[in-house]
Amino acid sequence: MKQSLIRIALCGAALLPITMPGAAQTPYPNKLINIVVPFPAAGTTDSIARIVGDKLRTRVHQSVIIDNKPGAGGNIGAAAVARAAPDGYTLFASPPGPLTINFNLYKNISYDARKFVPITTIANMPNVLVVGPSVKARTLQELIDYARANPGKLSFASQGNGTTSHLTTLYLENQLGIKMVHVPYRGSAPALSDLMAGTVDLMFDNLTTTLPFHQSKRVRILASATKERVATIADVPTMHEAGVRNFESSTWVTLAAPAGTPATVVQMLAREVSDIVKMPDVISQFATLGADPVGSTPEATAAMLREETARWKTVINAAQITLD
């Protein structure tokens, strides 16, 4: 009987809400949670944040809103979160730029990405190398051979200066000792449009964006920048299989919080989001976006961010690029 009472007490304790530091010991959450997305609505990061935010609302019984704060490559949204109170009510859903690239790239930046508290990586989207219909190369090796024999003849599109798309191609140039002409665009849509028209030759972009065009044969994916083949394009080799060793690049969405956010809140949010991304309907919704659910621990997320930061810092320094 005594053991039964102990088990009941422990179960009850597990259901108690988290309390925030302070005299009132207010349970968390007890008000609206604001998730800042540093890019416009309807993009992949925004879509993923809204899927998770909708589920989180029902699980914690509080309103969850998505607050789009675009501009300056994600720096405006990041700075707003960095200035927010570290109480768990302002969170940051970010792709790679603001958390692992921008502070090594921009001359003037008003926040330190290394001070954000990692919560979890929500989803991951492989980056792939895509060529337009005018490119004769049918394999990555054929493309590399042409690039080496014809320096500066191939052009590559990107989503803009300093984006993952841009840096991944610089990464490839560094690895192979080749040189191509960069043509920056304002996002994937105009870049892909010119790629299909033959105005530019190739680009790296995430699978979410490129898959429909690959399937309709308007572009060709030559390789994925992943450790293993991607199930939805199982016939496409990885960069490693195609001869470019240890080459990885992905676009992910990570949830983070301002510096000083209590560990109890961070751990609670990590558990909730990890559970959310395992839900069958969420997995299905992510699949339509070409996104793989992750749900990592805060510790694993922090390790991933350090690895990504080191990778892109090396690329940025080697290319000697800076942005105002």
How do the strands and helices of this protein lay out in sequence?
Layout: H1 2-14, E1 18-19, E2 27-28, E3 33-37, H2 44-60, E4 64-68, H3 75-83, E5 90-94, H4 96-105, E6 117-131, H5 140-149, E7 155-158, H6 164-176, E8 181-184, H7 188-197, E9 202-206, H8 207-215, E10 220-224, E11 250-257, H9 263-276, H10 280-288, E12 292-293, H11 298-319
Parallel strand pairs: 3-4, 3-5, 7-8, 7-9
Antiparallel strand pairs: 1-2, 5-11, 6-9, 6-10, 6-11, 6-12
Helix pairs in contact: 4-11, 6-11
What does this 3D model show about the protein?
This protein folds into two domains: 33-125 and 252-319, Bordetella uptake gene, domain 1 (D-Maltodextrin-Binding Protein, domain 2, 3-Layer(aba) Sandwich); 126-242, Periplasmic binding protein-like II (D-Maltodextrin-Binding Protein, domain 2, 3-Layer(aba) Sandwich). 42% of the residues lie in helices and 19% in strands. It has eleven helices and twelve strands. Helix 4 packs parallel to helix 11 (298-319). It starts with a helix and ends in a 5-residue tail after the last helix. The model is unreliable at 1-16 (pLDDT under 50).
